[in-house]
Each structure stands twice: as structure tokens, then as C-alpha cells.
Write a structure and sequence with these properties.
The chain folds into two domains: about 1-25 and about 35-170, no CATH class; about 170-215, no CATH class. Strand 6 (about 85-90) and strand 7 form a beta hairpin. Strands 1, 2, 3, 4, 5, 6, 7, 8, 9, 10 and 11 form an eleven-stranded antiparallel β-sheet that branches. By secondary structure, the protein is an alpha+beta fold. It contains five helices and eleven strands. The N and C termini lie far apart (about 50 Å).
């Protein structure tokens, strides 16, 4: 086990890729109040490396503010993003392993690179991806007082279709414009389901229907 930890520490040496939130500055993120992680606690999971190695012995956390995976073993924690392909975090007990899957390697878009991790909400011809981020909110204080800052949750949704990343707006009419194939049937489905596009489940429903309709 100590040999395994040593190997993974070596894998962790290359730097992790910066995404939109890290552009704010590491100092500002580290000094801001609030939780930078998707889940507060360390959780069980599985890490899949590009080499084919599969690791299950570590506790995991996902740092949304920096878009990086953190791994913990015997009280030691480190980032190993450069060699990781994807990972799964189990959000429930072993008896009922609800899980979230994160994957990188998608085409670059805006400030996100191929090293950016996305939460995979739906597989299929059109993959539905959720980008978990943290917004740095700065609050100006009284004169001669230091400004205060805190982290708030933010998210964005994308579809990866035929090797192209398509950002999805939260407006249902605009989403249908992004998905012109079978638009009439999709429009009818959205109306029947009264989708408001204000939560991830609505995006999953519309993209699952899309995958059913496209040839």
C-alpha cells in the first residue's frame, strides 16, 4: 500500500490545468470563506488513470473552485489530475452506492480545456455534461477595511455532440434552437413535462428525449 501511495504521489507532480475559476487567483480562492468542494466530506470512490490503472483505496473530494480531484490516504491528501482520466465518487453507503461520474478529455470551450472535469449526467449520442464551479464574491467593506470574499456555488450545462461542445442556456426556447433536430417533438415534450430548466433533472429529461428522437 505504501508503494502504491508513492506511485500516485509521483503522478501528482505535474501541475493541474487552470479553468475559469482559477483565473481569479489562487490567493483569493484560498483566503475566501466558504467551501470550495462539491461535497464537504471525504468519500469513497474509484479513480481511473490514463494508463489503465484503477484505484479504489483512496477517499476522494472534488475541488470545484480549482477544478481538481483531491485524494486522501492515511491522513495525507494530494491532487493527481494530470494522469487521471475519470473518477467516481460514491455519495451513499456501500449498500446503496449512488454515485457521480466526472470525466475530462472533452473539446476546449471558452476558458475550459481538455483537462477540465465535467460531471457526466447522461451518456448517449449526445452527452450531457455539468460543470460545477465556484464564483468568488467580493464584498467591499468600510474605508480602510479589508474587502471580504466568499465562494458561492455555480454551474453550467453542455452537450458534447459529434465532437463539438454546445453550451446549453437555461431558457427552454433557446435550448430548442440549439437542438434543431426533431424540434417539434422536443417542443411538445417540454410542454408536456412542464420543464423549467431550473435544475439538472430538467436538462437530463430533455437530452434523454433528444437521444431517443435523433436517428
Amino acid at each position: 500500500m505504501k508503494y502504491l501511495l508513492g506511485c500516485l504521489l509521483l503522478l501528482a507532480q505535474p501541475g493541474w490545468a487552470q479553468t475559469s475559476e482559477t483565473a481569479v487567483g489562487e490567493d483569493k480562492i484560498s483566503t475566501a470563506s466558504g467551501n470550495p468542494f462539491l461535497f464537504k466530506d471525504w468519500m469513497e470512490g474509484v479513480v481511473y488513470f490514463k494508463s489503465g490503472r484503477v484505484v479504489k483505496q483512496f477517499k476522494l473530494k472534488f475541488d470545484c473552485a480549482r477544478n481538481r480531484l483531491m485524494m486522501q490516504f492515511e491522513g495525507n491528501s494530494f491532487a493527481a489530475e494530470s494522469q487521471v482520466k475519470e473518477f467516481v465518487i460514491y455519495t451513499a453507503s456501500k449498500k446503496n452506492k449512488d454515485s457521480v461520474l466526472f470525466r475530462k478529455g472533452y473539446p476546449a470551450i471558452d476558458k475550459n480545456t481538455e483537462e477540465t472535469y465535467y460531471h457526466v449526467l447522461l451518456n448517449g449520442k449526445a452527452e450531457l455534461l455539468q460543470l460545477h464551479t465556484k464564483v468568488l464574491i467580493e464584498e467591499k467593506q468600510l474605508v480602510n477595511s479589508a474587502n471580504m470574499s466568499h465562494l458561492e456555488d455555480d454551474e453550467a450545462f453542455f452537450v458534447c455532440l459529434n465532437g463539438v461542445m454546445i453550451p446549453l442556456p437555461r431558457n427552454k426556447e433557446q435550448i430548442l434552437e440549439k437542438l434543431p433536430v426533431q424540434s417539434d417533438q422536443l417542443k411538445e415534450y417540454v410542454a408536456q413535462q412542464t420543464l423549467r430548466m431550473d435544475k439538472a433533472e430538467d436538462f437530463v429529461k430533455i437530452m434523454a428525449k433528444y437521444n431517443e428522437l435523433v436517428p
